[in-house]
User: Fold this.
Amino acid sequence: MPPPEDPMQPLPSPVDRTDPDTASLVARARLGDRQAFEQIYRRHVGRMHAVCLRLTGDANEAEAAVQDAFVRAWRGLGGFRGDSALGTWLHRLAVNAALDRRREFKRREGRHDDIDAQEEAAAPQLRVLQPTPGAAWDLERAVAALPPGARTAFVLFEIEGYRLTEIAALTGTATGTVKAQLHRARTRLKEMLS
Assistant:
């Protein structure tokens, strides 16, 4: 399908086939309607914040990543083609923003993105003795305590459903490295939760 001549005009491709209201919101937001964009924000901020929190392990960093993602969404909404659902596109922006913040932190700190002993030593050791009614919360804390590389691999693969090759592309690492980080995450979580 050829792109429209005016990039500010709504695209004819579906934004979300199941929700015509979403298509209308996107069309209005593309034209600069801030209230429409605010409605998009309210519909999607919770899921975006949850994935950013799981990836960063820090509430402040998660909030900053979500803010970055929505700024990118506002600026890039004119280029949103509608090949996927709006929520999927926003989710990908959030994941990328969280990973970008992590990369930037490592650059500032002069760290490398290798699986190394520094990550392993920096991760706090949590131990939960018995499954309890709060076991889901214990798992969230345990995931947050994983080294950053292992946490990213685990969250994207086990929780968000990304394929290993997609995670490798997102993080700029080899697929084998992602597999190793995923194995490390599973092993650490078993230790922490047993």
Remarks:
- Residues 86-109 form the longest helix (24 residues).
- Residues 1-18, 113-118, 120-131 have pLDDT under 50 and may be disordered.
- Residues 114-194 form a domain with the Arc Repressor Mutant, subunit A fold (CATH 1.10.10.10).
